[in-house]
Amino acid sequence: MLALICDALAGRDRGAPERWRQLVRSAAVAPDEMVVDSLAAPGYNIFPDVAFPGDFSRDLDVATQLEMLRDLPPDALQIELDSITDGRPPPHWQPAMKDPRRWLRGFADLIEQAWSAMQPEWQQTRALFDREVERIAVAGARGALDVVLNDLHAECTFREGALSVPDYGPDEFSIGSRGLVLIPMLAGPDALIVRLDGPAAVWIGYSPPHLTVPRPKDTEEQLQFLFGDARATILASVDQPMSMGVLARRIKCHPSVITYHCKRLESAGLVTRRRDGREIYVHLTKRGTALLDLFTS
Q1: Is there a contact between 21 and 2 (Cβ–Cβ < 8 Å)?
Q2: Exposed, middle or buried by CB within 10 Å (0-12, 13-18, 19+), for 150?
């Protein structure tokens, strides 16, 4: 709900459908301006972990999380904000430092209102989120989880064991022995919420792609399940080198779209592009060939 609230009320456009924005706006009855203002700062924005109560290893319902949020001691918010800002909270968080009880209650009320509006939408898409969990499981079983990480967001890249994410500070974090939790969100495609410094796990909230792809059958459909239509067709087509122009005609996409998808596949180490005269040809890498073999075996 946080991503939708930021999109609908705080002016942080993350591409949510206008219908969802209208639902959240209509449900948010007189939201506390202090809470909304704390979410509306442009660019990278901090957010306290105490506002996400509960253990991410358990599937807690919204009512339980709201109860936990309202039961938090006010000084928990102050202590965390002081810690993550080195005692210098930015202006849009200073009112929360002065009246943390009001912020916690206002935030809980806002989450509850947004959920009341979006719960029917969630129920309609629940099966698709279950499918996303299955997609991640397939990627893990196929040894392709890094491909999923490389495609969590248009500005995410995963290369040589390092994940770069947008809208975050310049710090570097090592996962080490901690777990990695991927949390699909009911949100616009540009939404991304990350917690990289948790003691037990790193978690990433993202808007899952390709949720309406059918269950996999043949090789190309299995690839569609993992990568989406365009990239699956590219991978299935370039078992022999193929020019970008031919790919564009085969997929019936604009050449710039083909270039975008090839760049993403290239970042994942699955294809390379080489110029031959006036044409650019796409080749499978050894990694791409091995991945294709996994789906054809």
Answers
A1: no
A2: buried
Inter-helix orientation angle 229-237/244-251, to 10°: 130
Six token digits for residue 30: 């007189």
CB proximity list for 60: less than 8 A, separation 6 or greater: 54, 68
CB 145 within 8 A of CB 154: no
Contacts of 247 (CB under 8 A, 6+ apart): 234, 237, 238, 258, 262, 282
Is the pTM higher than 0.90? no
Residue showing tokens 């949020």: 69
In this structure, what token pair is assigned to residue 194? 């990350």
Chain-centre distance for alpha carbon 78: 28
- The model's pLDDT over 106-127, given as tens digits with 9 standing for 90+, comes to 999 999 999 999 998 888 888 8
208-212 CB contacts, 8 Å cutoff, 24+ apart: 208/128, 208/129, 208/132, 208/135, 208/184, 209/151, 210/135, 211/125, 211/128, 211/129, 211/131, 211/132, 212/128
Q: Is 11 within 8 Å of 27 (Cβ atoms)?
A: no
CB 241 within 8 A of CB 282: yes
Cβ atoms within 10 Å of 158's Cβ, excluding its own: 20
Burial of 201 (0-12, 13-18, 19+ CB in 10 A): middle
Task: Give tens-digit pLDDT for 196-216.
Answer: 777 778 888 888 876 433 444
- What is the distance between the terminal CA atoms of the chain, rounded to a whole angstrom? 41
Burial class (CB in 10 A: 0-12, 13-18, 19+), 107: buried
Residue 50 burial (CB count, 10 A): 18
